[in-house]
Specification:
The protein has 325 residues and is an alpha/beta fold. The chain folds into two domains: 214 residues, P-loop containing nucleotide triphosphate hydrolases (Rossmann fold); 94 residues, no CATH class. The protein has 16 helices and six strands. Strands 3-2-4-5-1-6 form a six-stranded parallel beta sheet.
């Protein structure tokens, strides 16, 4: 069949239309409903950020959000407010799992075309040509949100800065665009293969040469604690923050920390761990709701394999669990 004769302007317009293809009436109702639900910290951040969006002066902002502080709720509300006003808001995330949290969000590598070898390029730029379909979107965007950003290499920000300056023909930081970074440095840092701790710190966003210009906000009210009013959840939240902030004493000989006695339940073997997390697995392995409420987390794949093959009975349970998933 003959190729269709469609120029790049059509591609530009399709991307702009896709970003503007929202029900503004429905979004306005959602904003009116959800703004009163913000707690005082969230409302303060929301009002400041929306004021910056309205002024259009751009800037680089970082929202420090430990788990369960309502980060996704706040980001979604900012998105809805901008889109309800016919504005364009772009959201990217470091991983595909994080990208599912915000409507219309994409992975950073998909949307911004970061080089895959950021660690080896001294002055990287995004692989975005001026005839790229998303160019008009980046130029017109009121805000670019980078969610779950702490695992991102600092050179990704450098690449985005150079690219936006070029596309928007503006010498200001990020071409005058408003960039909002959001995540928690206590959780995840960049993973640099075959590196030292110093290499990971050097690759961290806090080592970015413009980090001192970042305007920082913080959410500290844990909504999982505040809404159910659960004292045990509040204690657990405080313990997590104490560990994340590096306030727990470290044993000088082993380099390990000691968990508080009421932090978790300790087991002496893998079999005991499996039995505690998945009690009576053979009788319950077909119960999807029961399975969805429990999981064993592992830092590396080799630990997953250890659990998979620790004994024949465990292996049969694992196989049954995989079939259900």
């Amino acid at each position: 069949m003959p190729a269709s004769d469609r120029g790049m302007n059509d591609a530009f317009n399709r991307e702009l239309e896709r970003e503007r293809d929202h029900d503004r009436h429905e979004l306005s109702q959602s904003v009116q409903t959800n703004v009163p639900l913000l707690n005082p910290q969230q409302k303060e951040v929301y009002e400041i950020l929306m004021k910056v969006v309205d002024e259009g002066n751009g800037g680089l902002f970082f929202l420090d959000t430990p788990g369960a502080t309502g980060n996704t709720f706040l980001m979604s509300l900012i998105f809805a407010t901008i889109r309800a006003r016919s504005g364009i808001a772009v959201a990217v995330a470091s991983s595909s799992i994080a990208a599912t949290l915000l409507e219309g969000c994409r992975t950073a590598h998909s949307a911004l075309k970061f080089p895959l070898n950021l660690q080896t390029i001294e002055q990287p730029t995004c692989n975005i040509a001026k005839n790229f379909a998303m160019v008009k979107v980046f130029i017109a965007a009121k805000i670019i949100i980078c969610n779950e950003c702490t695992m991102t290499h600092k050179r990704a920000l450098e690449a985005l800065d150079r690219t936006l300056k070029n596309l928007r023909k503006d010498s200001r930081c990020f071409g005058g665009a408003m960039i909002l970074l959001s995540d928690d440095f206590r959780q995840t840092l960049p993973v640099i293969p075959r590196s030292t701790a110093a290499d990971e710190i050097n690759a961290c966003l806090k080592s970015y040469n413009l980090w001192h210009n970042v305007k920082k906000f913080q959410l500290v009210a844990n909504m999982r604690v505040a809404l159910p009013n659960d004292p045990s959840a509040e204690d657990f939240c405080k313990q997590l923050l104490t560990i994340g902030n590096g306030l727990v004493p470290v044993d000088k000989s082993s380099g390990f920390i000691s968990f508080p006695p009421n932090f978790c339940n300790f087991v002496s073997s893998k079999d005991e761990l499996i039995e505690n997390v998945f009690p009576n697995m053979i009788a319950n392995h077909k119960n999807g709701e029961w399975l969805s409420e429990r999981a064993i987390l592992a830092a590396k794949n080799k630990y997953v394999d250890d659990f998979k093959f620790c004994n024949s009975e465990c292996n049969s349970w694992y196989s049954a669990f995989i079939q259900i998933c």
